[in-house]
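Field reference: sequence -> structure
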Amino acid sequence: MPGTILYVMNYAASYRGNFMDSLASLDKKLRSEELKSIYLFTGNAKNKGAMDWIGEMQQRGEEVYFLTENRKQDAKLIRKLIKEKNVKIVHTHFITMQQYLAVYQATFGSRVPVLMHMHNHSREAGNLFKNILRRVLYGKCIMIACSQSVYRSLERDYPENEKYTIDNGVNFTRLDTYEILTEDNFGLKKSHGVFLIFGFDFYRKGVDLAVKALNLLREQGHYYSLLVSLSSNFEQVEERIVEILGEMPSWIKVIPARSDVATLYNFVDVFLSPSREEGLPYSVVEAGYSQCSVVMSNISAQKNLKIPYGYWFESENVEDLANKILKAQMEHEEKLKNWDTVKQSMRKNYPLDVWSQKVNELYKEILQRGRRI
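Structure field:
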């Protein structure tokens, strides 16, 4: 059944990341079904480093469009693409309510199904009216949860919606190429260990908890350093660190995110994910595949991950986080000795090919039954 899958995405990262690799893997599956992919990005992607890799997509002949962030204009654009490109399914990722309303308006009364990919847990509405309104607006969506934990939140908030769980997969191949760095690359003094955290959302990612835990360990004589990797909000993150410590210490370096993320994973001793909220984080799986150990909060989306040399602490407990950091650091050499076995385990548990195959099969099932939306 020839046709097109339209991806509507609030995605403007400065590098492709595992998310776009996932869609590329899926696109290969679709071509065997005589389906092709077209991509509709948030308008914000035009103003960021995202245009480097999006431009490469365009040069390869991939069809790329951008939202205007005006609901009426975006609904008109989506409706036009559906008609002219023979769109069979609209699949959304990370979109805001305003962006969803454009999709809703464009597909209302049509036979085109809308799939909403849920990369984080659904949050309970603040009051009964908002809860009812949300269920009405999303009532026709088919929902895909990125983990079983996210699926349970959908069962609570959207009991009537058709929904599925398809665990995220990771493109491990891109993690096998990396540079060798030293502390001098970051202007760090020699330390007992270097740690990494992604801090684009300071509070949700638990950067405050990491800073407090490492400061506690330094007061105890463990001279650790921390890299905070960001794609934006550099000044704001530094300001928040100063609010916690009273200064911006030399042992914390705020650094730009880089596309060859494996270079960072394989430089540091421990990757920190003290997050307060996650769906199924690519970063934890990627780090688990790399040479560093991994310390995670025991939130629902992380506590059941299969991460060799992974260490879980009680969420929000800074002292427990500090203790788990010490343990991860002490056992880091053991991981290095068993790295080949670790990589085999991670490839087995989080294969990207399985993710793309399951999404492709869901597409086929929906199209074969001619679901009316």
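Note: The radius of gyration is 22 Å.
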